[in-house]
Design brief:
The protein is of the alpha/beta class. The protein has helices spanning about 10-15, 55-70, 80-90, 105-115, 160-170, 180-185, 220-230, 240-250, 250-270, 285-295, 310-320, 350-355, 370-385, and strands at about 75-80, 95-100, 120-125, 140-145, 170-175, 195-200, 210-215, 275-280, 300-305, 335, 360-365. The mean pLDDT is about 95. It binds pyridoxal-5'-phosphate (PLP). Pyridoxal-5'-phosphate binds near residues 80, 105, 107, 108 and 210.
Length: about 375
């Protein structure tokens, strides 16, 4: 569904329609319909809204906007990214097999290993940025699940190539597009079937609410997901839907500023002798950079770096004065995360080490503050460490 010729920034504000079908008051900000249920005009007739577990006008509006941004025919808003992925996994059945990236958000790996496995779904965890996916397809394979760039190691998978393998074997290609957001990357246009989001991150953008999205370009998958959201009851609440709607209005501005900050920080880190490696696709000379350039219009604002010792990593986490040490990403505040004890603590150690997530690795989500303040803060934290 194209946005009536509207550009991306206009769609962030309105979705596809010229103006949202709001109430009769002319409110510019879409109303929060804080209602659990809706009156029926008569038996057999509905306003289109019956009960908020099934659908709610504020949720419908944020779904419309997200579908418009990703180029899908439908989007569904869930109470968190994990609620979205959990509901999505219900379209598979016992005996099904999924090829999943080896380096994924820790919560997705926990879900696959502990919940989906119990339901009889098996997974092959593969470095999708490196391996030929064709070699992992089995008779019962039903889907490929990737993040690109991955959390936290910033590996970049060629979405078009993965889509070719998926087409050839009749698999669904599912892309978690949280890290770049549709502002920089539109997986459905590159051949993916389903896009997943933690709306908590860039879409919301203010570290103030959780949300998740499933976006599809297939009516069949949309119908299945609509059935699931009404049945499992994990749809996004009206107020949280409104917060995401408000966040999305400034998505393009935030993405640009955060990316500029990430680029400056990545270049600063490269000059520090105590920094051993910087994983940021915006830095030229890597496969991640080349692939990202070919399929996205930007490199985002997430970066991971390895310092020379665990002590230095812990020192930096303890001694930044401006940048909080906290999980999450994609908000206006720059955050530093320690994947080994936070986001990826439940990933088995042997898997973590193969992926490169050591005790010397830090993840940084650049926010929209002044670049000099961020670099100044990192500089004083690094300089205070006796090497
Ligand atoms: C945070 C995150 C999730 C999970 O989303 P929640 O909103 O925290 O439930 C999934 N995928 C990625 C890439 C994430 O960063």
């Amino acid at each position: 569904m194209e946005g009536n010729g509207f550009g991306f920034a206009t769609r962030c504000v309105y979705g596809n329609k010229e103006r949202p079908a709001a109430d009769i008051t002319g409110a510019i900000s879409f109303p929060i319909y804080q209602s659990a249920t809706f009156e029926h005009p008569e038996v057999g007739r509905s306003t289109g809204f019956d009960y908020s577990r099934l659908q709610n006008p504020t949720r419908a509006q944020v779904e419309k906007v997200v579908a418009a941004l990703e180029g899908g025919i439908d989007a569904l808003a869930f109470s968190s990214g994990m609620a979205a992925i959990t509901a999505l996994m219900e379209i598979f059945k016992p005996g099904d097999h999924i090829i999943a990236d080896a380096d994924l958000y820790g919560g997705s790996i926990r879900l696959f290993r502990n919940v989906c496995a119990k339901n009889g779904i098996t997974f092959s965890h593969v470095n999708c940025s490196k391996e030929n996916l064709e070699a992992f397809v089995k008779e019962n394979t039903k889907a490929i699940f990737i993040e690109t760039p991955t959390n936290p190691m910033m590996n970049v998978t060629d979405i078009r190539k993965a889509a070719e393998v998926a087409k050839r074997h009749d698999l669904l290609l599912i892309v978690d597009n949280t890290f770049l957001s549709p502002y920089f990357q539109k997986p459905l246009e590159l051949g993916a079937d389903i896009v997943v989001h933690s709306g908590t991150k860039f879409l919301g953008g203010h570290n103030d609410t959780l949300a998740g999205f499933i976006v599809t370009k297939s009516q069949e998958i949309s119908d299945k997901m609509r059935f699931l959201i009404k049945t499992v009851g994990s749809g996004l609440a009206p107020f949280d839907s409104w917060l995401i709607l408000r966040g999305i209005k400034t998505l393009p501005l935030r993405m640009e500023k955060a990316q500029a900050n990430a680029m400056a920080i990545a270049n600063w880190l490269l000059q520090r002798p105590e920094v051993k490696k910087v994983y940021y696709p915006g830095l030229p000379g890597t496969q991640a950079h080349e692939v990202c350039k070919a399929q996205a219009t930007g490199f985002g604002s997430m970066l991971t770096f390895e310092v020379e010792s665990k002590d230095l990593a812990l020192h930096v986490l303890k001694n930044t004065k401006l940048i909080p040490f906290a999980e999450s990403l994609g908000g206006v505040e720059t955050l530093l995360t320690y994947p080994v004890t936070q986001t990826h603590a439940d990933v088995p150690e042997e898997v973590r080490l193969v992926n490169g997530i050591t005790e010397r690795v830090l993840r940084l989500s650049a926010g929209i503050e002044d670049e000099k303040d961020l670099i100044g803060d990192l500089e004083q934290a690094f300089n205070g460490f006796a090497r």
